[in-house]
Amino acid sequence: MDVRGLVAVLENRGGYTPEVYMLCEVLLKARKVQKEVKKEYAREFHKERFLAYFRVDGHWTETEIDLSSYFLTEKEMKACFIEAKNEYKTDREGRTHSLPMG
């Protein structure tokens, strides 16, 4: 598994057994990946997760989105969420810009 995949497994809490998480930690440590690289992959993972949340209208439900992360701080997670939210809004406005108002 590549580094991006290992980071995705560690960021996907609750989807795997503890043994899988431990193995991913060991593999990442053995590859001596820089902290910033792991953080960048974590940002990419969460940004896609947040975009999916908006695309399926999760923001209109009562479910609260999980802002916990293995590699990112709470502040970094909030920034990632805001970035995804802004990207979603821009994309949505671009798609609906030429629709007639009615």
Question: Could you say which structural class the secondary elements and strand pairing correspond to?
Answer: mainly alpha
H/E series: HHHH
What is the overall silhouette?
elongated
**Number of helical segments with 4 or more residues:** 4
Alpha carbon gyration radius: 16 Å
Low-confidence stretches: none
The share of residues in extended strands comes to: under 5%
| Span between termini | 51 Å
Oligomer: single chain
Q: Give the helix proportion (percent range).
A: 55-70%
- What is the β-strand count? 0
Which features does this protein show?
102 residues; mainly alpha; 0% strand
Description:
There is one protein chain. The chain has helices at residues 3-11, 18-31, 35-55, 74-96. With 102 residues, it is mostly helical. The protein is elongated and about 55 Å long. The model has no long low-confidence stretch (mean pLDDT 87).
Task: Offer a quick outline of the entry.
With 102 residues, this protein is mainly alpha-helical. It has helices at 3-11, 18-31, 35-55, 74-96. It starts with a helix and ends in a 6-residue tail after the last helix.
Task: Draw up the topology in text.
Blueprint: H1 3-11, H2 18-31, H3 35-55, H4 74-96
